[in-house]
Structures are given as C-alpha cells and as structure tokens.
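Reviewers asked in the last cycle whether our approach scales beyond single polypeptides. To address this, we selected a multi-component target totalling 1500 residues and predicted its structure end to end. The input consisted of the following lines:
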Amino acid sequence: MKILVINPNISESVSALIEAEAKRSASPGTEIEVATAPFGVAYIETRFESLVGAYATSCVAAERAGTYDGVVVAAFGDPGLQGIKELLDVPVVGLTEASLMTAATLGQRFSIIAISPRIKAWYRETVERSHLGNRLASIRALEEPLRDIGSVQQDYAERLKALCNEVVENDGADVIIIAGAPLAGLAREIRHELPVPVVDGVSSSITQLEGLIRLNPKKATKGSFAQPPVKPNRGLPEALERLLSSRKTD
Amino acid sequence: MKILVINPNISESVSALIEAEAKRSASPGTEIEVATAPFGVAYIETRFESLVGAYATSCVAAERAGTYDGVVVAAFGDPGLQGIKELLDVPVVGLTEASLMTAATLGQRFSIIAISPRIKAWYRETVERSHLGNRLASIRALEEPLRDIGSVQQDYAERLKALCNEVVENDGADVIIIAGAPLAGLAREIRHELPVPVVDGVSSSITQLEGLIRLNPKKATKGSFAQPPVKPNRGLPEALERLLSSRKTD
Amino acid sequence: MKILVINPNISESVSALIEAEAKRSASPGTEIEVATAPFGVAYIETRFESLVGAYATSCVAAERAGTYDGVVVAAFGDPGLQGIKELLDVPVVGLTEASLMTAATLGQRFSIIAISPRIKAWYRETVERSHLGNRLASIRALEEPLRDIGSVQQDYAERLKALCNEVVENDGADVIIIAGAPLAGLAREIRHELPVPVVDGVSSSITQLEGLIRLNPKKATKGSFAQPPVKPNRGLPEALERLLSSRKTD
Amino acid sequence: MKILVINPNISESVSALIEAEAKRSASPGTEIEVATAPFGVAYIETRFESLVGAYATSCVAAERAGTYDGVVVAAFGDPGLQGIKELLDVPVVGLTEASLMTAATLGQRFSIIAISPRIKAWYRETVERSHLGNRLASIRALEEPLRDIGSVQQDYAERLKALCNEVVENDGADVIIIAGAPLAGLAREIRHELPVPVVDGVSSSITQLEGLIRLNPKKATKGSFAQPPVKPNRGLPEALERLLSSRKTD
Amino acid sequence: MKILVINPNISESVSALIEAEAKRSASPGTEIEVATAPFGVAYIETRFESLVGAYATSCVAAERAGTYDGVVVAAFGDPGLQGIKELLDVPVVGLTEASLMTAATLGQRFSIIAISPRIKAWYRETVERSHLGNRLASIRALEEPLRDIGSVQQDYAERLKALCNEVVENDGADVIIIAGAPLAGLAREIRHELPVPVVDGVSSSITQLEGLIRLNPKKATKGSFAQPPVKPNRGLPEALERLLSSRKTD
Amino acid sequence: MKILVINPNISESVSALIEAEAKRSASPGTEIEVATAPFGVAYIETRFESLVGAYATSCVAAERAGTYDGVVVAAFGDPGLQGIKELLDVPVVGLTEASLMTAATLGQRFSIIAISPRIKAWYRETVERSHLGNRLASIRALEEPLRDIGSVQQDYAERLKALCNEVVENDGADVIIIAGAPLAGLAREIRHELPVPVVDGVSSSITQLEGLIRLNPKKATKGSFAQPPVKPNRGLPEALERLLSSRKTD
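The resulting structure, written as structure tokens, was:
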C-alpha cells in the first residue's frame, strides 16, 4: 500500500522529521511519500495558520489524487481533516485524531505535551471537536520561545521529559501524547524513561491508517462524509476542480 | 462606521440577497460594503466547501484591510471565523455566531431551519463549536433538491413556514433561527406569521457587529486571539503576507 | 428608544454607578431610566439574595410596564431573568447573559473577575445555566472583605488589575469579564492596561438590548417564553396581577 | 421529628393532595405540617410563576422558623430551593430533587410524566440544574388543557397511564417520575399496573428528608450554602429579616 | 426490615468498621447483617480489583437471596452495583451512589476525600457513571502508603482533617464526601470540626436504603433493570444459577 | 505476533463466528487463538451478564499469561476491559472500544445496530464510558426475540440491512457500527449494499490491536493503568493470584 503524508506547513526540516518517523513506523510493504505544503507558514500553532494549512493540504491531496491508498494530514491540530475526508475517496487521518484514538486504548485520561503556549488553545479545541475533551487531563507546553522549529527536540529534550513527568505526577495522566510534527520521533527516543505509555502523532497516524486501508472501508455515498455535491465553482486549482466535479457512482 | 460583509461563496445572487438585508438592518450612519469570494463554490454546505470559503474570505479581508471597522463572514457555518478573528484587529462576526448569541437572549432552546439535508451536519458542528449544542432543540431542512440557490426563498416559502411551525410544535423551540445567507431576509418576511421570535443571520450579524464596534474592544496582544506570531511564510497573497508580518505594538 | 435599567439590590450608590455607565454606553437617541429595587439586600452575592432580587425586579418591571422598549436586569447573576422574559412583551437582558454573548464573539474562553469569594459559586451556576460553562476558563475574586460596596472600584483597583493579568497568564482567558454592577465602568477605566479585550456587564447589556430592540423580535405566543397562562392568583401587587391577567392576542 | 411541607402555589386543593400523600409516606413519629403560599398563582408551570412561588415559600419558611426539623418545597421544579437551603439551618428538599435522587438509585435513565406541555421546558431546566440531564430519557405531558388542577388525577388517569407505558416502550425509561404536586399520590395508585418502578415527588421528598434529618448534617459555615452574609436590607417581612440578620456561631 | 451489607473485599477488619457504622446509622427496627467477600483482595482501589469484588458480591447476594429486604454494596466505587440491581428483586445501593445522592441535597458541589492516590481515578469514573461529574469539585487523597487498612482512620486522622479543610478553602466544595469503607464512621467523628456538611458512605447507604425499602418500589419487568433474560448458562454457583433461572411473573 | 481472542460468553457457536472473522482480518504473520469463557451465560446483553463475563475473561487471560502479545475482549460492551488492561502487561482492546476508535476516523456521528432491545442500554453506557456519547447518533436493534444466537445473521439479514438504512436516512449516521460478536462478519457481507462505511467489532479489534502491538507501548508503572498494587488476597484462581503478586520492575 502507498501512503501520502502531507506536511501542512512549509518547513522542509519538519517534513524530514516526519518522513523519518513515518518510515520507521511503517509496515513492510507500505510505501511512504511525504509532501510539503507549497504555501503557508513555517509551523502551525494558531487557528488562522491552520486555516491556511488546510487549503494548502487540500491542494496537494488533489494534485496527487489516485496515487495513494490513504493520506495523513501531518500536523497536530489536524488542519482541514474533516473537509479532506469528504473530498477524498480513501481513508484520511490526522496526527491528533490518530493520537487520541491510540491513547484512548491505552488509558482513560491523557495529557498532551506541546511545543508552545500559543498552541495549547488550538490543541484543546481540536480535542473538543472529537468530543474526547473530558478525557484530557491537561495540556502542558514549553514556555520558552522556539529558536528553530527543526531542532526543538534536541534543544528542549530535558524540559520535555520534565513536562512528561509532571502530567503523570500532578495531572493524573494515564498516557502522554507528545504533540506536533516537529516532535515526531521524540516519543520513541524517551519512551523508556517515562512511567506511562507515550503516544506520538506520526507513528499513530501511520499505524491507524494502515489499519483502515486494510479494513478497506467504502467511501460514503450518503451522509455528511460523501463527496461534496457537484456544483458551480470558480478559481480553484485544476486538480481540485477535477475532484469536485467527478461524480462517484455507487 | 463601515462594515465589510464578505460572502464566502461565489454566487453574486446570494451577495445581492445579503446586501439587501444588511442595508435594511444597518443603523443610520453605518456604511455597508459587500464583497464576494473571488474563488470557491456556488454555496457552502459541507466542511470542505467551508474550508475553501475560509481561505477565500481571509484573502478578501486582507486585501481590504484598513478600510473597515468590522467584518461579517456571511455564511452560516462561519467559515474560518475564529482564524479571521486572530488575523484582524477589528471585530469579526459570523452568521451562526451572531444568530446564536441573539437567539440565546430570546429563549432557552432554539431550532435551526436549513436549506438542505447535507448542510445539517455542518451546522450542528458549528453550534457545537460554540458549546451551545445543548440548547439546540433541532435542525430541520428542506428535503427537496435546490433548483437555484438565489431563488430558494420564493420557491420554498410555504415549506419553510411549515418547518418553522414544526420546530415549535414538536421540538420545543422557543426561538427559530432561519439559517443561511441564501435565506437572508426571509425571517423579516414571514415573522408575523410565526408564533415565536425568528432570528436571521444577516440582520443579527449587522446588529451584533455594530454593538461590538461601539464597545470598541481592544485587540488582544496575549492569549489565543492575538495576531499569529510573526514567522517565515511563503506563497501567500501579498495582502495576507503584509498582515501576518506586521507587528502590532501594545 | 427607552430602556429601563433595574438594579435588583437596594443600594442607591450602585444604581448611580450603573446609571453612569449605562448612559456612557447608550447610543444617541436612547433614553436610559434607572430604578432601584424597593426591597431586598444591599448587594446580591448568593442564591437566596438573588431570589429576593428577582421578585423585587419583577415588581418594578410590572409597575412601569408600557413605558419602555426593553429592560436590563442589572445584577450579574441575572436574578429572575428568564421569568421576567416570560412576563414582559419587550426584550429583557441581564448583565451575565449580555457579558457572555459579547465575550463569546471576542474569544473562545473567558474568565470572570468578581468582587467576593461568596459570589463565585452563584456566578458559575449562572454561566452553567447558559450552557457556556465549558468556555469558562476561571472565576477569580477579591478575597478581602468589602468595606463599602459603592467604593469597591477605587479601593481595589490594583488588586482587580492583578486578577485580570492572572487569568490571562495562568488560566488561558482570551477575554475578561469584569462582573457585577458595583464594578460598572471599571472595564472602561483599565481596559488600556490589559492584554485582552475586557467586557463589562452594563455596557454589554445596553449594547445587546439596543440591538434586540432594533431587531424588534416578536413576543412569543407559543413555547416556553410566551406569557404565563392566565390563571387564578392572589396577593400579588396590582401591577403584576394586571400583567398576568392580560391576554395577548396573536 | 417535624417536617414542614410548603406548597408554593395558592391552591388549597393541591395542598390537600400533598398533605394526604405526605402523611401516608411519613414514618411513625414524623409529624407533618402543610402550609400553603399566602400569595402567588394557582399552579406553577413556568419560570416566572416559580420565581413568585420561591419568594412566597421563603416567607413561609421564615415565619415558621424554629418550629421544624426540615422543609419540603412541594412543587416539582423546586422553586427557590437552593436559595432556601442557604437561608435555613435545617435540611431542605424539593420534589424534583428528591425524585431524581430516588429514581437514580432505581435505574440509569428515567422519564418524567407531567401535567401540561408548558411545564416541560421548566422541568427540563430543573433537571439540568442538577446535572442529571443526560440521564433524562424524555418528558411527556398531557396535551389537554386542565379543567381543574385539583382533579387532574381522576380526569386523566387513563391518559397518564398511557404516557407511562410510552416512556418505557419508546423512550428507554428504567424508572418513571410522575411529576407535580397535583399528581401527588398517583404513583401509589397506578404503580401495580406499570412495568417499571414509579417515583412520586411527595413520597420521595418525605423519605429523603427523614433520612437527612436522621443523618443530622451540620449547617455550613463556609462555602456557598452557608447563611447569606449579614448586610443591610430593606422592606423584607420581619421574619425574613430576622433570619438574615442572625449570626450563626460555629 | 432486614438489610444485608456486603463487603466486596476480604478484610474482616473493614467489615467490622462497616458493621459498627451501619448499626449506628440504622433506624430502630432495622436489622443489619454484614457479610464479607469469600474471595478477592484486601481492599479495592483499582478497576480490576473492583471487577473481582463485583463477582464476589454477586455470589454472596445470591446465596442469601430471600433473606433480606435490601442490599448495600459496601465499597466506595460500587463494584458491580448496576449489575446486582438487575439481578435482585429488592433495592440495592452502593456507597458512592448513596453518598452522591445525599451530598447532592446538601450542596451543589462536593469533594471526595480518599485513602490513596491510586483510588482517585476509579472514584472519578464512578462519579462520572452517575453523570454527576460536573458537580465534583475535586478528589483529594492521602499520599502516604497505607500501613494497615483497618487502622487508617487512627493513623491519619489529622491528615484527613487537613484534606477536608483544603477542599473547602481551595476547591469550592459545599459538601465533603469521606470515601471508602475503611473510613466508615470517620465522618461522624470529625464532623463537628469541619465547616461544611460531611457525608459518609455507610451511613448514607443505610439511610437511603431504608427509605427505598419503605417506598417499596416495584421490581422492573421491562427496561434495562429487569432481571436478565433466562438463557443457557454454565459453571455458575448454584445460588446464582437459581436466581438467573427463576422467572418473575408480573 | 500472537493474539488471544477471548469470548466472554460460553457459546462455542459464537466463538466460531469470532474466529472466522478474526482470521479473515488478521495480517499475514499474526496468529489468532480463540478461547471461550469457561463459565457464564450464552450471550451477554445486560450489565450483570457483563459482570460475570468480565471475571471469566480475566481468568482465561491469566491462565494463558505470557503466551500472547495482545488480547481482544470479544464481546460488544467490553466486559471488564479497563480492569483487564490494568492486569496485563500487553495491549488489550474490546469490540466496542475498537469499533468506536475506527468509526471515529471515518465520520463524525455513528449509529450502532444491535441484536436485541435489551442490549441497547448497556451499549449506550459503554459508549458513554468512552466519552464519545455525543457522537452516537442512535442505537437501533432487532425487536424480534432471538431464536438461536449462533444463527442470528442468517435469520435476520434483511431486517439488519433495513436498520442500517434507517440510521443513515433518519438518524444522521456517517458510519454504521454493527455490534456484537454474534454479528461478527456481517459487516463484511453486506458492506457493498450500504451507502456509508460499516464497522465491525471483531475486524476493528484485530486491526487496532495489531497496530498497538507494533507500536509496542510500555506497560504503565505509574498512573491508574499500572498493575494493581500487591496486597493480600484469597480464593482466587492460582493463575490470577500469580499475576497479581508478581512485581513488575521498571
């Protein structure tokens, strides 16, 4: 099977981190292709930045339509995820969604470790969209301004480990979700040092998506995740227009 | 004061309906300017269509930055509303948000009348985002396929009135929200025939926004609705990039 | 238009604060009249005190029926608000309700700054009644016993500003609601010193109510906000009995 | 022990029904005294009517202070219940509260059978105040206008039994709550004909209150159910003023 | 009446504490019999331990079927409570359920004081099962490892009192629930030293159950708390099999 | 990897259905072993039956400890699932949990199709335990009494398909969960005839569990899913006692 992993932000260094962890997580026989948003911002930590990343990700998914069995929207906060599930006829997952679904099988309450304070509000809202907000024990973040998004793991490894221990000791977390594509792979590195299971967005996404592709769910032809109805449109990239105009028969 | 009303879909006929109702609702001294999305779809009824409309609306708001005191995102479902509130330094409201806040002062439980079945799921999620989902008595919609989005009011006036009565008699609605820019003004026309207060998105938005502009709230410099942090970006329309790169001093 | 603002507590000094801020907030052409509860307690901070204030406010509203286009129940915690909405045939708002609806358009999560610890429980329950409890980041209060309810602003201005900063830094508030009629106008004074928008009950109420009056919603003849059904009664003030006995035709 | 049962409405016929069921439910050794509201309306089915009943009930409780070990606020919807709990130094229960607490031990989901459609909204809000709204399967009501509140049981016995069966068959009720003081005792009469346990407000209240009196809980001196703080007041009935002014020592 | 109190854990010392408090709480004429689980663990503080306790308690209840008018499942966390309510044809209550229902009539928000940190997660889930989670102000626990479950009260009386004061001062508790059968009776001992009402599981259970038995609710023959349908089974203790196979006629 | 699938009910015919679907769903290289509960009831549809099944399943898991990499609790309603997660040091999933997590990635709202009306209450509570109750559109069930649990699929195929279409047309389901081990494999058979994705408990469980085993999460040594603390016990099966007494070092 082939999985397209789309980085909704424009940072190639982050795409590299994502690619490394995605390939480490993939099953034998799964081909991973990573694409970077052609426009947008360096990293996504606010609702507006997510709005832009959502459109960029949609464009990339449309351009490469037909070349993959499933898509990962590879930013925590899942920019545009539900809209892209409507658009495509293959399974699509996001880093937050996959992390939540994985964490939910490993414990009752989970905490999220994030890279910046600004990002916490948007993560909280993403969790609330899933209706799992009542299982969120806490969100803790690095307080320091980020020097370089691509090197956040090395720069702050000790502080991140300290946050992990805080959520277990103080917040009642059964599971820790280390959030954000820039932290891809960090869970794998420090997992042996932590007292509860640790979940990472990229590895959870690859695993969840492989499972969905194997289950081979049918694309909805009714309900709110069927393809958007065909209707007049204007000014969209050709690939997007093509997808929106094609009628899927049952 | 001057209010910019942005139609997130590309239908000029809908923009005309919006403009008529907005001007009817505005106070003396309020100047209304309506802009139509330069790209997107004919009318928005799904999450993906909203995603596209969100980006189009952001572009329009950025292009005209500095020429208005407030913005209305004029589609029910509020495409991109929270992101656009981050982006701009003036108040921004959406049709759903304003309808909910108005309806909430007129009763405890409200129902939404919508133009298509497909749209119901997306409306429900928009209400849930506000956390007022528990006050939503029901959403009822026209079941018939829409011939022409600009003439939906005339074509279906009787059916819409019937739906209004159903939500009062059967669903326990204290207030009716007639939803969707294509229905702009319908509330005004049939209000005298209905047994509970009726709320319309466009008139509520203009009213709420005028109030906010008069209150003159300060633009946040901290918290999650401050402007997105300045960071590298690429490939954005010049107006958007300019807005994102300007540093607002406290 | 004419707005009647009723102070549910008996303190004329508080009525004076309310009147000053109400007049500052009103649009040109809006006439403000302030009435003080003829019986009750000096300031309302508990459920029982609110129960008494509710009845006093209803009596005042009934006495002056027909002389106003809308009513403000001018205590945070909105004593009797929903019952008074049933009773009258004009729009009625309360300080909490209006603050919440205004705050909800300026951010996702808000905190309330209150004048006493005792009052926090009652405020929380008022917010829960609106179903916006999940958007309440925190309620913080002055801990010191109040010397004089009419001078709380001057006495505690610095402490109140400190509480405002705490809710932004520690509790994740996007918006601050400064609560309670005794604090009427404080938002206006300190707003420029705070990093997020600040909402005040009196100015929000006047603004929201002006908007509602302009929208001219119909009085419900069905549903739970129609006038209470005509039925036998005894021992009520004449004005109240008159209102309850009049049959509103559709 | 002695229990004062206060009817918040002015109907002596309803007080008689309440008294009969209260005495039937009381343990040997429990003395029941029933008082009727000296002012108010014939029966309470709206929020405003409850607001008036709350004040009337408070006045009665204050007048007879010191003569009872506990109080029942004997209207479903519990007018003023939380405020009266603050005011008094003995346990106080309401018909809804007691019904919910009893029903909650007999099943997971319960339905409420009510006497009029108008009353449903207010009952729902009362249940929501307890935070047990998610366990409420449904509220069904007589649709017919009530001829005489004191004879509702005889007039509508068959229709009420039909509603009871509907909530079990269609709504998934494990327990039925027959609501409203005018229906006091109906549960007892038809219980043997119904397939699930039936709960009645008056008998539940007497039972719950006897239990609380036996547990002899201490009156709070801190927290939000301590007596309201002593403060200036005006125009209150002497008995109420006396209660508010007395300082309870710890 | 006769009440069977079943200790789901195997500690006779805990059964003794339970018995003492149960007898102190019982009304004259109520006979109390205490049984200890024949298999299981010393004290229950996790979900798995509760699972075992649930089965042990069911076996005991089945063995003694017909000899009691009601049953108390005497561990906080109510192991197997809902299943045992299905099984038996008399009322059954648990320590948590009874504590919550009692606390809910004494205040709006309550805190739980527990004997170990491990137990907090399971208590929280038990409260959530009742849907009263939104009224839970906090759960605080002893942090120290327990020397001897039977002597926890004496060993930690001062620390427990300190926790009680913390939940009032810091967490906004109107009522304190002292949780766990090993703490049976502690509420009675320290109640006079605390500023809010204190609720204890055993005394609440006896009181609630006496009330239910007096109300004499009918055993459901429909709905989800009717006896489990008769069906093939294997390997169950004879008493359990007999109960499951008996058909209750209406 | 090796997966142990435990059927919590005693029906070998159901175990056969489970085994067939489990093997069809497994990846190459995954060995499936199915065990049937040694005691209990023919099929689980109530809380009490689940309580018994929980204990039986725990016993089986303990007996075979060390012979598997993960466990599936193969009854919808997940008897004892959270307790068994505490007990074992490998991942454990249940049919409901896995179905929910899979469905949640395929749509926003899902409906459950069940085999009997009695079972609906217990399923609802299982979904509520996950906190995804707000995403549950509806639960519909066969109304007819089951002739033979092992042949329910053949007997009722048409009726089950009709229910599937109802939840899409009437209840707003984006995804259908066909629930219950006796229906294992039905999703696979009828999927092509339905307009939305269909999820089956057994195939979802195998897929989710394979993913978890590949992610190789660490067994918690802190938090509420660590092994239950070592403490005195009595009368437990030897295998269970051994597991409870072993101390896992970090």
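Chains A and D do not touch (no CB pair under 8 Å). We regard this as preliminary and will revisit it once experimental data from Aim 1 are available.
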